């Protein structure tokens, strides 16, 4: 019975440990991926927008490694990072560090008691991180290749947008022609009105002269 119990406990311990290691592996890979993306968030926006170049302000691998370690420690919640403490814990630490509380603890003899640590199934410790830059933008060939790779898609986009604008202009062309014809008709009408305004006074003047010649002499 004891042998069976020992075997069961051993198998259970192996399964639990294997599951813990597998879960830790998954968490580390996910945290490392997130940390790398967080470090890449400092890219140059203009170069990315115009040429599709993911360029960082510094190409120093050591500086990039420090940034990745910074984010990795906080993603894995490595012990000793102050940012991991909750607001209540930070407030409690502030109270405990005050002189009044220290004197009370010293008087009661509880200032030397050790705090109990919470259970940590993983207890992550970052020993080493290696960062290997893929490309250096100071190399002309690499820079040219990346720009051409991005611009061949951007060029198609710009060309398609230009064609769409032309199609929209052609679509509105009929409306523009109708508006222009309407303007010409209005101008023609105004011209006729102007000619009539000139012709009517002239007509009355001529009629007046004719009447004057016909009846003016008889009156005298």
Task: Walk me through what this model shows.
By secondary structure, the chain is mostly helical. The protein folds into two domains: 2-135, no CATH class; 172-219. The chain contains seven helices and no strands. It has helices at residues 2-39, 45-51, 61-75, 87-96, 99-108, 140-171, 173-219. Helix 1 (2-39) packs across helix 3 (61-75).
Number of domains: 2
| C-alpha geometry | elongated
Q: Over all CA atoms, what is the radius of gyration?
A: 45 Å
- H/E series: HHHHHHH
Which segments are poorly predicted (pLDDT under 50) over 5 or more consecutive residues?
none
Strands, total number: 0
**What fraction, in percent, of the residue positions are helical?**
over 70%
Percent of residues in beta strands: under 5%
Structural class, judged by helices and strands?
Answer: mainly alpha
Q: Helical element count?
A: 7
**Mean pLDDT, nearest integer?**
73
Taking the alpha carbons of the first and last residues, their distance comes to 160 Å
Biggest pleated sheet: none
Short description:
By secondary structure, the protein is mostly helical. It has helices at residues 2-39, 45-51, 61-75, 87-96, 99-108, 140-171, 173-219.
How are the SSEs placed, and which strands pair?
Blueprint: H1 2-39, H2 45-51, H3 61-75, H4 87-96, H5 99-108, H6 140-171, H7 173-219
């Amino acid at each position: 019975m004891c042998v069976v119990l020992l075997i069961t406990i051993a198998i259970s311990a192996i399964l639990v440990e294997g599951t813990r290691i597998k879960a830790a592996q998954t968490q580390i890979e996910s945290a490392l991926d997130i940390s790398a993306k967080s470090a890449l968030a400092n890219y140059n926006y203009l170069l990315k927008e115009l040429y599709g170049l993911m360029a960082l302000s510094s190409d120093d691998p050591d500086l990039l490694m420090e940034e990745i370690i910074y984010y990795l420690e906080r993603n894995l919640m490595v012990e000793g990072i102050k940012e991991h403490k909750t607001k209540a814990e930070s407030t409690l630490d502030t109270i405990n560090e005050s002189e009044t509380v220290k004197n009370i603890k010293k008087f009661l003899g509880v200032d030397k008691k050790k705090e109990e640590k919470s259970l940590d199934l993983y207890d992550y410790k970052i020993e080493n991180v290696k960062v290997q830059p893929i490309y250096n933008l100071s190399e002309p060939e690499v820079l040219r290749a990346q720009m051409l790779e991005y611009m061949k898609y951007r060029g198609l986009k710009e060309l398609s947008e230009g064609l769409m604008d032309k199609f929209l202009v052609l679509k509105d062309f009929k409306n523009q022609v109708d508006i222009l014809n309407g303007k010409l008709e209005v101008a023609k009408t105004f011209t006729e009105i102007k000619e009539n305004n000139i012709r009517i006074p002239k007509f009355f003047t001529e009629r007046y002269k004719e009447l004057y010649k016909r009846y003016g002499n008889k009156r005298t």
